[in-house]
Write a structure and sequence with these properties.
The structure holds 2 protein chains of 2 kinds.
Chain A lengths: L3 H14 L2 E3 L9 E5 L6 E5 L7 H6 L10 H15 L13 E2 H12 L4 H17 L3 E4 L4 E4 L8 H13 L15
Antiparallel strand pairs in A: 1-3, 2-3, 4-6, 5-6
Chain B lengths: L1 H27 L13 H17 L6 H7 L5 H13 L3 E3 L9 E3 L2 H15 L2 H16 L5 H28 L2 H6 L7 H18 L4 H32 L7 H10 L2 H6 L15 H9 L24 H17 L4 E3 H7 L3 H16 L5 E5 L4 E2 L7 E2 L2 E5 L5
Antiparallel strand pairs in B: 1-2, 3-7, 4-7, 5-6
Helix pairs in contact in B: 1-5, 2-4, 6-7, 6-9, 7-9, 7-10, 9-10, 14-16, 15-16
The chains are: A alpha+beta, B mainly alpha.
Chain lengths: ~180, ~400
């Protein structure tokens, strides 16, 4: 099943489309990380390259990576999602829990500071879309829920400890009933 | 990729010019009359070269200053005059006959030799000159007519050279940053051959004039210091290269040679163990932390430029509203029918301007693909003297599909 051809094909798919959703029982090809869905319905395959060959090499060599619009807002939104969908920072980051968009947007609002409601909403949705496309989070637009995406499993141990510190510095989602202004 | 290539090449050129200038300044240091009176750009050397080549082409009559300026008209005239004055001041250009009002000048050959020499040094980093110097020294100490004074002088010169190189290198390898060290890495290449040649001179001298053993000992010490300095500098570079993938560790020529001469397998082996991730942005936790920390501050959001008051922004909402207005108007006219005659509609209008507005709306309804109306025109002209539009082309507005 995982002959060289299968492996090459899986890598080519991942190269073109990012993390792959596969049905239950698919073995992981060489070099790929297999992340089971919490619902038991299939799994994700994420290409895991050595740290000496992944995207941060680009930064080290001073080359431009893929262009990211609004990098700061996008990073803030990812941080907000991390705060809401990773309930216990000592537990593994995948799969995390599902969160509604309202608490995520509330945390994002805390991080970005006071902004016009429309602008806030617009930048949040744009960042959600960008992150969803890149596999950093899974955004169910119809149910309006957000989860961490399979790509978060690529953060290394030292990355995770930095993220834990970040997690602790951020305000958590409000456990109280959802703020009325969060859902226009 | 090509853009990067161009930029890279530009930077390389710049770095090359800076290196050339550094060597020029070092080499001219012994010639300069006072500090801070040095040439400041390699282009000035081009001017010098042009002046000297003008003299070379002139034959035995020499040239007047005007002729020189004419021959060098590719360069700015003030620059040429200034360089001419400098060359004159240093005696590189002299009057053909030493008398007042002499207009013809001749050039000495030594400055041009110096220029050639400098250019060579700048191109090869002084390595090959050092090699040649060593060969010459070896020749002179091996010559049958050489005396022990020659041998002593030769050994002393070499001792000085190697001490200077070793000092420069070891100071750099101790204190300088890696970039500077890398720039001077040329001193590290081919050093084995240099040391071997120096040892050959040393052996010859020691064999011929055993009385010079003290001087030879200094030379040995100088060579050893050079070797140690190389080891220290190379170790530091290699240590840094391990963590930064510094492609600049080797000079660009080495990489080019490698790329040209290596076979496919060797070239491919460079990327062994490299696999490239899907082209998605990577989020470094450090960057995320920075973004979060800077987030609360009121950032410098760009404000839209001020607009004249009353110039409400109609662009975003108008198409939809327009469509609704048109649809309402047309539906009013059609009521329950499926078509309506245009001349009836226009004659119903209270005045000419209102009829014109109606016609505009009908036309718009026809052209809007989202609206299910079509306007067809017939031949001829319907004229009515007393009516408001005096003449109308008969036409018909049809609903193309039934409205829900």
């Amino acid at each position: 099943m995982t002959g060289p051809d299968e492996t090459a094909l899986a890598w080519a798919r991942a190269r073109a489309g990012g993390p792959l959703r596969v049905p239950v029982g698919t073995p992981a090809p060489a070099g790929m990380l297999r992340l089971p869905e919490p619902s038991g319905d299939g799994a994700w395959l994420v290409p895991q390259v050595p740290e000496t060959a992944d995207a941060r090499v680009l930064a080290e060599m001073g080359l431009a990576g893929p262009l990211l619009e609004q990098p700061n807002d996008t990073a803030r939104l990812l941080a907000a999602v991390l705060r809401c969908c990773w309930p216990d920072p000592l537990a593994p980051i995948w799969p995390g829990v599902t969160a509604g968009s309202a608490p995520v947007l509330a945390v994002f609002g805390e991080l970005t500071g006071p902004r016009d409601e429309m602008a806030h909403r617009r930048s949040a949705v744009a960042a959600l879309r960008r992150l969803d496309q890149a596999g950093w989070l899974l955004w169910d637009e119809t149910a309006d829920t957000i989860r961490l995406g399979p790509r978060v499993a690529l953060w290394s141990g030292s990355d995770l400890s930095t993220l834990r510190q970040l997690w602790r510095t951020m305000p958590g989602p409000q456990p109280a009933p959802p703020a009325p202004e969060a859902a226009p | 990729m090509t853009d990067d290539g161009l930029v890279q090449q530009g930077l390389d050129d710049l770095a090359g010019e800076a290196a050339v200038l550094r060597v020029y300044r070092q080499a001219f240091a012994v010639l300069a009359r006072e500090a801070e009176k040095m040439i400041l750009s390699p282009q000035l050397l081009d001017v010098d070269e042009a002046i000297l080549s003008a003299f070379a082409a002139s034959g035995s009559d020499g040239l007047t200053e005007e002729q020189v300026r004419n021959a060098c008209r590719a360069f700015p005239e003030p620059t040429v005059s200034r360089r001419f004055e400098v060359l004159k001041g240093y005696g590189a250009v002299t009057k053909v006959f030493e008398r007042p009002n002499e207009r013809y000048y001749r050039a000495a050959f030594a400055p041009y030799i110096m220029l050639l020499f400098l250019r060579r040094i700048a191109e090869r980093g002084g390595q090959s000159e050092l090699h040649q110097l060593l060969s010459l020294e070896h020749e002179s100490v091996s010559a049958a007519t050489a005396t022990d004074a020659d041998g002593r002088a030769s050994v002393e010169r070499l001792t000085q050279v190697f001490r200077l190189i070793a000092n420069e290198l070891s100071i750099m390898s101790l204190g300088a940053d890696v970039v500077q060290l890398r720039e001077n890495a040329q001193l590290l290449w081919g050093n084995e051959a240099l040391i071997r040649r120096a040892e050959k001179v040393h052996a010859t001298v020691l064999e011929r004039w055993p009385s010079l053993d003290r001087e030879c000992q200094w030379l040995r010490a100088g060579l050893a210091a050079y070797r140690d300095a190389i080891d220290a500098a190379a170790a530091r570079l290699i240590e840094r290269a391990g963590t930064t993938r510094a492609l600049g560790l080797l000079p660009a020529e080495e990489w080019r040679t490698f790329a040209r001469t290596a076979d496919t397998e060797r070239l491919g082996a460079v990327l062994d163990g490299f696999v490239f991730d899907a082209p998605a942005p990577w989020f470094d936790p450090q960057v995320m932390t920075e973004a979060v920390e800077t987030g609360g501050r009121p950032d410098t959001a760009r404000m839209p430029p001020p607009r004249p008051v009353g110039d409400a922004d109609p662009t975003e909402t108008s198409p939809a509203t327009d469509q609704d207005t048109i649809r309402a108007t047309v539906e009013d006219l059609l009521a329950t029918r499926d078509f309506v005659e245009v001349n009836e509609v226009l004659r119903m209008a209270p005045d000419w301007a209102a009829a014109r507005r109606l016609l505009a709306q009908l036309t718009a309804a026809h052209h809007d693909p989202a609206l299910p109306y079509a306007l067809t025109w017939a031949e001829g002209l319907d004229v009515a003297e007393a009516a408001s539009p005096a003449w109308v082309t008969p036409g018909r507005l049809t609903r193309t599909e039934t409205q829900p």
